[in-house]
Write a structure and sequence with these properties.
heterodimer; A: 352 residues; alpha+beta; Rossmann fold; OB fold (Dihydrolipoamide Acetyltransferase, E2P); six-stranded mixed β-sheet; five-stranded antiparallel β-sheet; B: 284 residues; mainly alpha; MetI-like fold; two-stranded antiparallel sheet; ATP-binding (chain A); transmembrane transporter activity (chain A); transport (chain A); ABC_transporter-like_CS (chain A)
Chain lengths: 352, 284
């Protein structure tokens, strides 16, 4: 139960700038995801939070107090690692109880608390096993229990699901989210998986080259990204370059895109060139000449729950589109495309 | 298992080698240790347990055996103390630095055993560089008698056996994932606690072979105690060689050798039994 603020955090390795002014804030009880490709600085940020790395500049505060001078072993944060980092020579119960033992708590109390937390993460009966004798999913739950049993002020999770198969990933994901919400622990969660980030987080920080490209709710990140990089990273997206961008109100613009004149919402105060974001599910197939755009179907794939098409417009741009599965489309067919205007979004063109 | 089994087939050279150069000689030596002493030959025709009776009944041999086992124990422990920090630094080194460190560590093995021990004799002489160094620093007023002491034997053995301890420990330390250290730190462990609870137990798969190797080599060391230990104190190997090549008492010498081997096996076995649980848990 702590408010955590990261302010202008910088980290340099010789000639590589890993963190170039990262600022974030987690309100008490929030789960904040750091999302981005490898090398974007998300793990570095987490390791600075944990105290495993020393920042070169900026500050990290917990409830208003800087923790940068506190060594990692006195921060009282729980850390869950991608490779679980269970102590191979200790049993499951010893792993979970290790932190309590360091606090010199009485044996009986350690036993009770270990037992309780094992119940919580559904590890009952596995206390005497060694880590190598249990499955990957169980190992990850031990890692989680080991962090939670210490009642940490802050929970730091570094790609905790990356080594699990898809089915387990779903299960453990919900377990993490449930436990985090029940206990009200503030948490930072590092991942490169956008669906994981969207599903679990209160806030998402999309990171790009050591900076936070956008820090907002999952909905905003998806629907109102500040630049193409963010839109690309959070899901399937079409981008259409716009000519003649004119401001027609607060964060509203009149644009010409692929031959059509549209009035759309977008990032405030766009001045230079801009591109239009159209998510595949915001587009709908119509009869030729009926929609906003006209084009030719170049690909179509039936995926069961939906039909994925690619449509080439007259100006050569390609639109990906998710249609209702029973729609019949043939490659080479002329179609019209209607736009759900509430899902269009204009962004300034920024260097990727 | 039949000869068509390729694994067994490939093992034939090794089995042959072990049979000819280990099983046969040991069998021969056990046999020899029960022979009666010879009059004009090194051994007689009849069988007896008199050599073992003599060793067991004579406190002198117990003393020498104990000295050998304890000296080897001291060498092993000192070796461990010296080697662990070296292994630690080596496990952190990368690239050319690691190669350089490996070369340094292996250097005592690159010198012949006689040359190395004569080196120690010169270094430890009354007017040798070690004494001059200590006198020069003002730590001592009179030159110390270093040569022909048990301490020098131990020092020289530690020197040459350090590589056998460093290399396996270095290997084990390299296998410890750094995230384990971070994990324990995040759970509140101080550096000392991380070392005690995580690093030390997890490096045991390297400590164990290092200790066994050094102990066995130290118990059996002959040249170093013979040259640096002087005539005042005896160790089992010097005693055995004396019986075999000095007085030509092959049966008695063999009995001493068997006693030493069995004692060493008992010590190693006891150590293995005491650390079995730790080994079972800490192996990768």
């Amino acid at each position: 139960m702590a408010t955590v603020e990261v302010r202008d955090l910088r980290k340099r390795y010789q000639d590589f700038l890993a963190l170039d002014g990262v600022s974030l804030k987690a309100e008490s009880g929030q789960l904040v995801t750091l999302l981005g490709p490898s090398g974007c600085g998300k793990s570095t940020t987490l390791r600075c939070l944990a105290g495993f790395l020393e920042a070169n500049g900026g500050d990290i505060t917990v409830d208003g107090e800087s923790i940068l001078s506190t060594p990692a072993n006195r921060r009282g944060f729980g850390v869950v690692f991608q490779n679980y980092a269970l102590f191979p020579h200790m049993t499951v119960a010893e792993n979970i109880g290790y932190g309590l033992k360091l606090q010199k708590l009485p044996k009986s109390e350690i036993e009770t608390r270990v037992k309780d937390v094992m119940q919580l993460v559904r590890l009952g009966g596995l206390g005497d096993r060694l880590p190598r004798e249990i499955s990957g999913g169980q190992q990850q739950r031990v890692a989680l229990a080991r962090a939670l049993v210490l009642k940490p002020k802050l929970l730091l999770l570094d790609e905790p699901l990356a080594n699990l198969d898809a089915r387990l990933r779903d299960e453990v994901r919900w377990l993490i989210r449930d436990l985090q919400q029940q206990s009200g622990i503030t948490a930072f969660y590092v991942t490169h998986d956008q669906s994981e980030a969207m599903a679990m987080s209160d806030m998402v920080a999309v990171m790009k080259q050591g900076r936070v490209a956008q820090f907002a709710t999952p909905r905003e990140i998806y629907q109102k990204p500040v630049e193409r990089y963010v839109a690309d990273f959070t899901g399937e997206a079409n981008f259409i370059a716009c000519s003649s961008v004119m401001s027609v109100g607060e964060a509203r613009y009149a644009v010409t895109a692929a031959g059509a004149s549209l009035e759309v919402a977008g990032v405030p105060e766009i001045t230079g060139s801009a591109e239009l974001l159209l998510r595949p599910e915001a587009l709908e197939l119509t009869a030729p000449a009926a929609g906003t755009f006209q084009g030719t179907v170049t690909k179509s794939a039936f995926l069961g729950a939906a039909l994925h098409c690619e449509i080439a417009l007259a100006d050569g741009s390609i639109l990906k589109l998710t249609a209702e599965p029973n729609h019949q489309v043939e490659t080479g067919e002329e179609v019209g495309i209607a736009i759900d205007h509430s899902h269009t979004w204009l962004m300034p063109e920024v260097a990727p | 298992m039949s000869l068509r089994n390729p694994k067994l087939f490939l093992a034939i050279p090794a089995i042959a080698l072990i049979f000819v150069f280990m099983i046969l000689p040991i069998t021969n030596m056990v046999d020899m240790s029960f022979r009666t002493p010879g009059q004009s030959d090194p051994f007689g025709d009849d069988y007896t347990t008199m050599h073992y009776d003599r060793i067991v009944g004579d406190a002198y041999y117990w003393g020498v055996l104990l000295r050998s086992l304890l000296t080897a124990g001291a060498v092993t422990l000192l070796c461990l103390l010296v080697s662990y920090p070296i292994a630690w630094h080596m496990s952190k080194a990368k690239g050319m630095k690691a190669v350089f460190l490996y070369a340094c560590i292996a250097s005592p093995l690159m010198t012949g055993v006689l040359v190395r021990n004569f080196g120690w004799m010169i270094a430890a002489a009354l007017n040798g560089p070690l004494n001059e160094f200590l006198l020069g620093l003002g730590i001592i007023q009179q030159p110390l008698r270093l040569l022909f002491t048990q301490g020098l034997v131990i020092l020289a053995l530690v020197h040459v056996f350090v590589p056998f301890m460093v290399l396996p420990i270095n290997n084990a330390l390299r296998n410890i994932s750094p995230t384990l250290i971070e994990a324990s730190t995040s759970m509140g462990a101080t550096r000392r606690q991380v070392f005690r609870d995580i690093i030390l137990p997890l490096s045991f798969p390297g400590i164990y072979p290092g200790m066994i190797l050094v102990y066995v080599l130290a118990v059996a060391a002959y040249v170093t105690p013979a040259l640096l230990g002087g005539q005042m104190v005896s160790y089992m190997p010097t005693l055995i060689i004396g019986e075999l090549t000095g007085t030509f008492q092959w049966p008695f010498g063999s009995a001493l050798a068997i006693v030493l081997s069995v004692s060493t096996i008992l010590v190693v076995g006891l150590f293995t039994a005491l650390t079995a649980r730790l080994m079972e848990r800490s192996k990768a």
